Amino acid sequence: xxxxxxxxxxxxxxxxxxxxxxxxxxxxxxxxxxxxxxxxxxxxxxxxxxxxxxxxxxxxxxxxxxxxxxxxxxxxxxxxxxxxxxxxxxxxxxxxxxxxxxxxxxxxxxxxxxxxxxxxxxxxxxxxxxxxxxxxxxxxxxxxxxxxxxxxxxxxxxxxxxxxxxxxxxxxxxxxxxxxxxxxxxxxxxxxxxxxxxxxxxxx
Amino acid sequence: xxxxxxxxxxxxxxxxxxxxxxxxxxxxxxxxxxxxxxxxxxxxxxxxxxxxxxxxxxxxxxxxxxxxxxxxxxxxxxxxxxxxxxxxxxxxxxxxxxxxxxxxxxxxxxxxxxxxxxxxxxxxxxxxxxxxxxxxxxxxxxxxxxxxxxxxxxxxxxxxxxxxxxxxxxxxxxxxxxxxxxxxxxxxxxxxxxxxxxxxxxxxxxxxxxxxxxxxxxxxxxxxxxxxxxxxxxxxxxxxxxxxxxxxxxxxxxxxxxxxxxxxxxxxxxxxxxxxxxxxxxxxxxxxxxxxxxxxxxxxxxxxxxxxxxxxxxxxxxxxxxxxxxxxxxxxxxxxxxxxxxxxxxxxxxxxxxxxxxxxxxxxxxxxxxxxxxxxxxxxxxxxxxxxxxxxxxxxxxxxxxxxxxxxxxxxxxxxxxxxxxxxxxxxxxxxxxxxxxxxxxxxxxxxxxxxxxxxxxxxxxxxxxxxxxxxxxxxxxxxxxxxx
Lengths: 204, 485
Ligand code: SF4
Description:
The complex is a heterodimer of chains A (204) and B (485). With 204 residues, chain A is of the alpha/beta class. Chain A has helices at 23-26, 46-49, 87-94, 107-115, 125-137, 166-174, 178-184, 186-194, and strands at 8-11, 13-16, 72-75, 99-102, 119-122, 143-146, 151-153, 159-161. Chain B is of the alpha/beta class. In chain B, the strands form five sheets. Chain B has a five-stranded parallel beta sheet. A five-stranded parallel beta sheet of chain B has the order 16-15-14-17-18. The radius of gyration of chain B is 22 Å and the shape is globular. The termini of chain B are far apart. Chains A and B meet through α4, α6, α7 and α8 of A and α2, α4, α6 and α12 of B.
């Protein structure tokens, strides 16, 4: 498996303009009994996508035929709060999403996403509203995200810059393996441990 | 570093865990140097459970790596374990083969890597955030991580403790380190005395209702002030536990005599001379006078009432005698979300919560399943009965809490009142172990999340303290416990 990469993406946008969407919403706990990462797309927004009888809710954005194939999710403020489950990022990726736009992300969700190549892009609330209005008018519009230039391009020509921590950006652009990077630091870790004996022994 | 510069508790723990001399030069901003490079942060204690670890062990296997420090790792089973005492391993395989497979996978992973596991029948098993402190493994000044957002609980001991994702679980298993950017600090000062029947749970629900569920994003909370100092360790853990509900990955409380008294003599706490040395170090941890915080809020403890949530996130809390708010105070952009929360809860603005009928009461979870919580619930239930038609579950946080409670005959109080006395585990805090709400049911829960569907699809959660939960169980409706004291 290669380390995840992200460079540019142009796609339609699925709007989910609800604030504080927690990771239990993104993927309910009953889908977490897996020992691998596959097939979690099935559980994405499960209780919103399907009614109590299990049939798809036609009004839910992700079920609308004109939005099928959208790889960008436009999410509400504080997206991904709550549980640390990385399954939330895996489920979004499993359902075909490659980027999420929001005005703010919860810390753990942001970390998890970036480690899996799911780009989370924080945009100003004005831009967020503009994109929502554009998509509501015409679901077929496409938005472009350029990670290297740190820009989001709207179909009306508006071009907005975004910030991302440089390390995550570097890793995504170059496919840097973060665990591999940490393993290279082990000599320094060993020196650190040598002068600072372990505080506990869980086997005691 | 300038030793004279006053530092916060967080600063001291963070600074002493950054591994010096970690290179990576050139990986920073545009290849220009170290700018923006995360710190390599050393982890003292890594807690592991069945749900967020399998893919991390698989990653190690794929790369041919071993767990680097099994002695600094401890595993337990809690999320998907049944709390119905009649369900053993064999039956679990029948009724929940997927959950059983996950538990068996954890056993295999721990055996293969030499990690101590508190398996199903271990007398030490329990919720991951209950057992760390109980064993004396969670200690002041340490870094503690777990693939679980409520790892913030351990900050009650003056540890820097936070939840991580599964990729990071693999990082810690393989290297005992994490790549982390330094968070900001946020002082939450609570001075004064809490009123009668106002508990740590009410305090933290009040804090979150004030700051909002994203108020702490990017920050580490430090809870300070006389009201915090006055809490026992169980109460402090309740507070730190819900830091993540305020958006902060970690919450900390400086260690003091209360902390030391709790730890002394615990099975895995230091002993003898090592204890004395540890004490010396722990006493140097509290925030220095004049140390700057990035943000500060001050709260008057006397203002806090018993709290209940009315909505679908933990920030939507009101005093138990309050009324469900309308959208007036809600910013324009959030009104739709607010209206959807009220619709999900089927509640109307302007109406009181007091007297609202309930179907289920859940006392448990890593927020409120410790012995003091069970004592509080029992103090209300003693000589009373759970209202007819209401189901009440009391779920101890660990086997040890369960034993303690039984020594004190609390189980008899619960059973006599008509409540179910269950096995230790996460239980109805999240719907993945058989304990869950039916669609449309209302529950008063001592857990930490009232998210839509958290306790079962269509289930509706009112978060509250063990006292409020027990009082509400007796009346079958949301109750101000102060009427029953
Ligand atoms: S009790 Fe609930 S919040 Fe705590 S660890 Fe278990 S599932 Fe998570």
